[in-house]
Amino acid sequence: MRNPEDQRQIIALIIAHVRSLRATSRRSLADALRISPTTAGQYVDQLIDSGHLVESGLEKGPMGRPKRVLGTLPDAGWFAGIEFNAERVQAVRVDFSGSRCQTLTRSVTEDSDADSVMADITALIKDLGRSAAGPLLAIGVGAPGVVDPAAGVASHYSFLPDWRNVPVRSLLEKAFRVPVILENNLRVIALAERWFGGGRELDDYVILGPRSGFGIAVMKNGRLIDGKHHASGEIGRWVWPLTGQGGEMHDALSSPAVWRRLAGVTSRARLPADLHAALEGLAQTEGGAWDIVVNDYARVLGLLHLLLDSSAYFLHGPLTALGTRFCTAITDQAMLLMPALSDMPLTIMPSSLGDDAGALGAASHAMEGWRPV
Q1: Given this model, what pLDDT does residue 22 score?
Q2: What is the Cα–Cα distance from 300 to 281, expressed in whole angstroms?
Q3: Best CA proximity match to 315, nearest among 199, 235, 209
Q4: pLDDT of residue 260
Q5: Distance separating alpha carbons of residues 5 and 14, to the nearest angstrom
Q6: Does CATH number 2.40.30.170 belong to domain 198-350?
Q7: How far apart are CA 58 and CA 3, in angstroms?
Q8: How big is the chain by its Cα radius of gyration, in Å?
Q9: Which of 156, 214, 314, 351 might form a disulfide with 250, Cβ 3.0–4.6 angstroms?
Q10: Domain spans in the chain, listed from the N-terminal domain onward
Q11: Which residues are CB-contacts of 202 (< 8 A; sequence separation ≥ 6)?
């Protein structure tokens, strides 16, 4: 007789296998979980009765008897995903089957503080629920900067001055009475790539996040790298230039900094209302400013690739507006700067996911971590 926690774990694994289409029959579930077909069938019957799974249609293979096809019921509940940065708070609703249903956004203003951002997050989750089918099951939050996922605390974010040790999980669990999972925003974007983007068939890839600052998230052997101090990927804090003159890398390679450099304006110039569109207008830039930006990125990403040797680097944020030309130029220049890369090709590509990738990944994180009550 299994204990209740083991049973909850098996049920969660069954739903995850069916949702991801890794297993679509009782037999394939039994094989995937290494349990008997009878036991798998009992769990499936339980989940059909509880309204989480449905069994319908016939899946006919090349040999043997046709099998009933299992699927998840979209209306069994929903998951909220929240991600924010210095410009906006993004919210996504994902149904029980893992389909994106709704996206909402609120702007973060120059006078925003930790309390106002948490108020926006709470309001957006309530707005998501107004047209949702089924109960809210869990909330995922992708917060910028350094976070402590185990404690559910957002420790520090440079671009929101009073964002220090914010107890995100406890605040949201008190408001909504459901489990809350907190993670760094770029690491939840890595989960979005796994569920919805170019990382579906990869175990090793890197998320490049030059947005207000510059961070990365590393997926290695199918697992996200966190770090002892939960600060893995904070490369925007590297000294810049790399020769060491007191600045930090995000001062030169964040999306706002790149726009200012390509547009030929000062570091104090006001940013356009739509940074993505402004960068898109600079995508065919030629000449000195373009070449210098490409060279800077090539140095950083070339060194990063020599360290990580990842299968792919997915570019996120406003710089995706510069397109594949920007990514190809960086790759070519990195090869010139570092001949050792000729034996280990560097693959950089703009992500196919949109601006809601972080919120989508946060919802995916909540979905993956959900356990039945």
Answers
A1: 84
A2: 25
A3: 209
A4: 96
A5: 14
A6: no
A7: 34
A8: 22
A9: 214
A10: 4-72, 76-191+357-369, 198-350
A11: 219, 311, 312
* Burial class (CB within 10 angstroms; exposed 0-12, middle 13-18, buried 19+) of 2: exposed
- E strands, the chain, in order: 53-59, 67-72, 78-84, 88-95, 100-107, 136-143, 146-148, 153-156, 164-166, 180-184, 205-210, 214-220, 223-224, 239-240, 247-248, 313-315, 348-350
Fold of 4-72: Arc Repressor Mutant, subunit A (1.10.10)
Which homologous superfamily is 76-191+357-369 in? ATPase, nucleotide binding domain (3.30.420.40)
* Percent of the chain residues topping a pLDDT of 90: 64
CB 207 within 8 Å of CB 316: yes
* Beta strands 214-220 and 223-224, pairing class: antiparallel
The pLDDT tens digits of the residues spanning 169-187 come to 999 999 999 999 999 989 9
Q: Which two tokens stand for residue 276?
A: 């993505």
Q: Which residue has the higher pLDDT, 356 or 326?
A: 326
